[in-house]
């Protein structure tokens, strides 16, 4: 469907007095749920100095910034640079290379994440899914921004508790001390403004244990921010281990205008997928983000087409898979029943996950983008992996830099089309 026909369809609907529902544009459906986000973009285009914040939460696709990085670049080129946005604290995993900034971390920090946390009684994780803790004085983090990502406001979120330590934040010539010692346990966020653009911030611990859950930089001069948060290997159930108080505090502080929920790849690579449990969890997390985020628009991104040679996954959907043994692991490497095939194939649970996400998005009035369909449907992972240059890595799951840029282009093209339809409907 062309952009003109999309806009015409919406105009006819409005003229007829019906709800201005935007038809599916390529692989984007339910875009009418994004109207508040589109309105803010339009105001920004007209010069209103208001920062528009996109916050993406997901798995390794989100953690790596290979897709969100080019998406950020494209939006900021069009609407202005609002800052680098929210990041996990410090350098939480090997291969952490956020676009636009560099992070240095001294010795003396330990890392926890939702993937490895106790599933019954996890500690208080915020939206990043990470906790960074130091028990010694003088442990430090340094955030250095590229000139284009200079910032006028730094935000640090950490866990307050009895007998906790504190930290100093230095921006330019100003150093501010924050104590996390408090009578009750809970994540709290502190804001550090600057009258001048800054390209470096230094955080140093003092006086006891310090736990950080996220931090962020903004320039507060309008434009767009795209924050990417993800934990490698996670399924949707791991995001459910985050803490309501911590997530609520961070969402109130960071004020996203669009939340992108991008899970499903790892859920589709389990040995036996439980469709009912996944659907219940997805509905619950959408409702939870709406509640904690104050009704902010949500876009659910389905997983890409991805492939494996693990024979144990050939019938892993709810329709054909056998139940797991009672003592089988549910996380990490699963070596049982591992017969490897000679050719690549898509685990059938991935198709089931997309169907569930599409249906739940429609039922809960959130937008839905089918990444797998947009990249070409079944077999696309192999085509992308053998393209010149390769768009998907040799694992047939993760994008290369070129592939990430292509995904960002496809996503923004569909959002642009829906944006035109929204403008026509106003």
Question: Which descriptors would you attach to this protein?
Answer:
single chain; 426 residues; alpha+beta; Rossmann fold; Jelly Rolls; 2 domains; six-stranded mixed sheet; six-stranded antiparallel sheet; 11 helices; 27% strand; globular; disordered N terminus
Mean pLDDT: 90
Count of runs of 4 or more consecutive helical residues: 11
What is the CATH first-level class name of the largest domain? Alpha Beta
Q: Specify Rg, calculated over alpha carbons.
A: 22 Å
Weakly predicted, low-confidence segments:
1-19, 320-337
> Architecture of the largest domain in CATH?
3-Layer(aba) Sandwich
Which class of secondary structure composition applies to the elements? alpha+beta
At a glance:
By secondary structure, this protein is α+β, with helices and mostly antiparallel strands. The chain contains eleven helices and 19 strands.
Structural summary, described in words:
- The structure is a single chain.
- The chain is α+β, with helices and mostly antiparallel strands and about 425 residues long.
- The chain has helices at about 5-15, 35-45, 60-65, 70-80, 235-240, 245-255, 275-290, 350-365, 370-375, 380-385, 400-425; strands at about 30, 50-60, 85, 100-105, 110-115, 130-135, 140-145, 150-160, 165-170, 175-180, 185-200, 200-205, 210-220, 225-230, 260, 300, 310, 340-345, 365-370.
- The protein has 2 domains: about 1-80 and about 225-315 and about 335-425, Rossmann fold; about 85-220, Jelly Rolls (Sandwich), CATH 2.60.120.1360.
- It contains 11 helices and 19 strands.
- Strands 1-19-16-15-2-14 form a 6-stranded mixed sheet. Strands 3, 5, 6, 8, 11 and 13 form a 6-stranded antiparallel sheet that branches.
- Helix 7 links the parallel strand 15 (about 260) and strand 16.
- The radius of gyration is 22 Å and the shape is globular.
- The model is unreliable at about 1-20 and about 320-335 (pLDDT under 50).
């Amino acid at each position: 469907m062309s952009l003109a026909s999309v806009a015409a369809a919406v105009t006819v609907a409005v003229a007829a007095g019906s709800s201005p529902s935007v038809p599916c544009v390529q692989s984007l459906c339910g875009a009418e749920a994004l109207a508040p986000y589109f309105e803010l973009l339009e105001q920004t285009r007209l010069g209103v100095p208001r920062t528009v914040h996109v916050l993406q939460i997901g798995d390794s696709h989100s953690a790596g910034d290979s897709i969100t990085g080019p998406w950020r670049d494209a939006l900021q080129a069009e609407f202005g640079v609002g800052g680098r946005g929210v990041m996990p604290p410090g350098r939480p995993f090997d291969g952490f290379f956020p676009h636009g900034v560099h992070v240095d971390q001294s010795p003396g920090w330990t890392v926890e994440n939702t993937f490895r946390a106790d599933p019954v009684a996890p500690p208080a994780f915020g939206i990043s899914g990470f906790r960074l803790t130091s028990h010694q004085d003088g442990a430090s983090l340094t955030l250095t921004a590229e000139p284009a990502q200079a910032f006028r406001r730094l935000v640090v979120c950490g866990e307050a508790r009895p007998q906790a330590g504190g930290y100093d934040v230095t921006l330019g010539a100003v150093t501010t001390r924050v104590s996390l010692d408090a009578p009750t346990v809970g994540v709290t966020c502190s804001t550090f403004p600057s009258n001048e653009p800054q390209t470096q911030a230094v955080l140093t611990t003092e006086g006891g244990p310090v736990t950080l859950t996220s931090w962020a930089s903004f320039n507060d001069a309008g434009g767009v921010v795209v924050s990417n948060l993800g934990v490698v290997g996670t399924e949707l159930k791991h995001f459910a281990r985050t803490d309501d108080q911590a997530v609520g505090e961070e969402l109130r502080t960071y004020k996203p205008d669009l939340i992108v929920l991008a899970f499903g790849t790892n859920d589709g690579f389990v040995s036996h997928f439980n469709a009912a449990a996944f659907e219940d969890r997805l509905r619950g997390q959408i409702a939870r983000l709406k509640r904690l985020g104050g009704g902010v628009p949500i876009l659910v991104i389905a997983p890409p087409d991805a492939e494996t040679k693990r024979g144990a996954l050939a019938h892993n959907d709810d329709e054909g898979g056998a139940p797991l043994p009672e003592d089988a692991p549910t996380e990490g490497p699963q070596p049982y029943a591992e017969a490897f095939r000679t050719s690549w194939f898509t685990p059938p649970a991935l198709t089931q996950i997309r169907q569930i996400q599409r249906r739940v998005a429609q039922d809960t009035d959130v937008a839905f983008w089918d990444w797998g369909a947009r990249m070409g449907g079944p077999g696309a992972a192999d085509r992308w992996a053998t393209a010149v240059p390769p768009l998907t890595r040799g694992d047939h799951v993760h994008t290369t830099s070129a592939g990430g840029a292509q995904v960002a282009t496809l996503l923004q093209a569909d959002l642009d089309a829906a944006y035109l339809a929204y403008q026509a409907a106003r």
